[in-house]
Design goal:
The complex is a heterodimer of chains A (about 280) and B (about 240).
Chain A: H1 3-19, H2 22-40, H3 53-80, H4 84-91, H5 97-130, H6 138-164, H7 167-194, H8 198-209, H9 213-224, H10 232-242, H11 245-272
Helix pairs in contact in A: 1-5, 2-3, 2-5, 3-5, 3-6, 3-7, 3-9, 5-6, 5-11, 6-7, 6-9, 6-11, 7-8, 8-10, 9-11
Chain B: E1 2-11, E2 14-24, E3 29-33, H1 40-47, E4 55-60, E5 63-64, H2 69-73, E6 76-79, H3 91-101, H4 107-113, H5 133-146, E7 151-155, H6 163-178, E8 182-187, H7 190-196, E9 199-204, E10 207-213, H8 214-224, H9 228-238
Parallel strand pairs in B: 3-8, 3-9, 6-7, 7-8
Antiparallel strand pairs in B: 1-2, 1-4, 4-5, 9-10
The chains are: A mainly alpha (about 280), B alpha/beta (about 240).
């Protein structure tokens, strides 16, 4: 793969995402979320006002786990879907198909990264000026995890578009992926663990954690906040089996790398044999 | 320059191209004529590396297009039947993108759009959304000319052009022909074929029924006092 072939495609993808206003819209949504959650987060306790980073990050994490997979899948599917006239011209150039996919992925990721940095950045600056800096270090880790989640779901959207080829089928598959990973998976795991004995159930929960990138990010986010008491069965099992925070974080990062690389490699393989 | 041997392409049970073999000489303009679904575009897309043949071989300038597709694609420029670009980009940005992809100097854009054959009439800075179908086709042709590749593959190039655009396009193609380019094009428009082609391949149901020099076709028109359309239909029905 040549960088000189990948970069023009990435650059074009970024320009298109910015001109189509997606980047601005997502930056606005992310920024609004941070500020709203921070300001109105304690409204149920009868209070309003900015909360510190610790509480804001913990509340944001749950929301981001729903929002980012959906946004990434929709934006990625739209971009990776075939556009007859455009693709025929592009794929007839002396550039490999994997270079084209890599370029598109990098461009989209750059657009989402820009939106994330602007949205979460502006929100973070406002919180920093309004509250003390307690828990500040957890916030950039949370932003990095959001970006990792974005990359995983952009890779999955690439695979969904290449498998489906047609618009309605591709968006259907993307929505199905979102529903499976964000809603259904945990219910299936919980249901499955109820059928097993305690020891087997612990192993099952530990292994199941790596079967869902959303769960990996959730547990990594909670671990990074050292929220041992709140990260639930999967996180507890992870610490128990791996023996500490460092090992646990390392295993989760490896899990996310695999979840990013596997759909990309499968997409390369599938597109190699497809007709344009 | 182009050698196609036993090219077969099937889509499930349907055979789009059935054992087609032909050769296009260097500097020749080769037309592929045939009704819808006769396999013309499939052959062109296979040469351009967009579709993988089920059987057969393709060589461009002696390079095996199936084994070393990138090397083969450096020798060609392909213009699809319907071109498409991102609406939010300007024509110049689209040209710049393809210039960078082919590792050409950006100054090449000015050389192409300001050449006498192209009359861009200031639409260089317009966004793609503002361009008509004919203008987009012209932009596609400009992209195809950027690399100055020795082989041009054009799929129904005049289909979305108005009469004036089609005349200008034929003139432009003639200048490329004079420059020694090897041109392969598909067409329904018999006028294009008669005016531009050195040889004509007639395709019916994925099979090559005849490859004739244009003089032979013209001779048949004169001898039999019939139109090109009638002669074409005779070849097509004989299949």
């Amino acid at each position: 793969m040549e960088l000189s072939s990948i970069l023009p495609i990435a650059r074009r993808e970024l320009i298109v995402a910015i001109r189509n206003k997606w980047t601005v819209i997502f930056a606005f949504v992310f920024g609004s979320l941070v500020l709203a959650i921070s300001y109105f987060g304690t409204i149920t306790a009868g209070e309003i006002g900015f909360q510190g980073f610790n509480r804001t990050t913990a509340s944001l994490l749950s929301l981001v786990l729903y929002l980012i997979p959906l946004v990434s899948l929709m934006m990625g599917t739209q971009s990776f879907l075939r556009n007859e006239g455009e693709d025929e011209m592009l794929f007839s150039q002396p550039v490999s198909r994997s270079e084209i996919l890599t370029g598109k992925l990098l461009g989209l990721f750059a657009a989402m990264t820009t939106a994330t940095f602007i949205g979460f950045g502006v929100g973070g600056v406002v919180i920093a000026t309004q509250t003390d800096a307690e828990g500040f270090l957890g916030y950039p880790v949370f932003v990095l995890l959001s970006l990792f989640l974005t990359l995983v779901f952009l890779s999955l959207s690439m695979l969904a578009a290449i498998i489906s080829q047609r618009k309605t089928k591709a968006f259907g598959l993307a929505l199905l992926l979102w529903f499976f990973f964000v809603i259904l998976y945990d219910l299936l795991v919980l249901g499955g663990s109820l059928l097993l004995k305690e020891r087997s159930a612990n192993y099952f929960i530990f292994a199941s954690l790596f079967g869902n990138p959303v769960d990996i990010v959730r547990v990594a986010g909670l671990l990074s906040m050292k929220g041992g008491e709140v990260f639930g069965a999967a996180g507890a099992a992870l610490l128990k089996f791996l023996g500490g925070y460092g090992q646990a974080i390392g295993a989760l990062v490896v899990g996310l790398i695999v979840w990013t690389a596997a759909p990309i490699l499968a997409s390369f393989r599938l597109l190699r044999d497809q007709d344009i | 320059m182009i050698e196609v041997q036993g090219l077969t392409k099937t889509f499930g049970q349907f055979t789009a191209v059935d054992g087609v073999s032909f050769e296009v000489r260097e500097g020749e303009t080769f037309a592929m004529l045939g009704p819808n679904g006769s396999g013309k575009s499939t052959i062109l897309k296979s040469i351009a590396g967009l579709q993988k043949p089920t059987k057969g071989t393709i060589a461009i300038g002696g390079v095996d297009a199936l084994k070393t597709p990138l090397a083969a694609r450096k020798l060609i420029s392909y213009l699809p039947q319907r071109v498409g670009f991102h609406d939010c980009l300007t024509a110049h940005e689209v040209l710049e993108f393809y210039c960078r992809l082919r590792k050409l100097p950006i100054s090449r854009i000015e050389e192409v759009v300001h050449s006498s054959e192209f009359n861009f009439n200031g639409f260089n800075e317009k966004r793609v959304a503002e361009l008509s179908g004919g203008m987009k086709q012209k932009l596609g042709l400009a992209i195809a000319c950027l690399a100055d590749a020795p082989v041009l593959l054009l799929d129904e190039p005049t289909v979305s052009l108005d009469p004036a655009g089609a005349i200008a396009f034929r003139k432009f193609l003639k200048t490329l022909k004079e420059k020694g380019k090897t041109i392969v094009f598909t067409s329904h428009v018999l006028a294009d074929v008669e005016m531009l082609a050195d040889r004509v391949a007639v395709l019916v149901d994925g099979k090559l029924t005849a490859v004739l020099p244009i003089e032979e076709l013209r001779q048949q028109i004169a001898d039999k006092n019939r139109s090109l359309e009638e002669i074409y239909l005779e070849y097509a029905s004989a299949a």
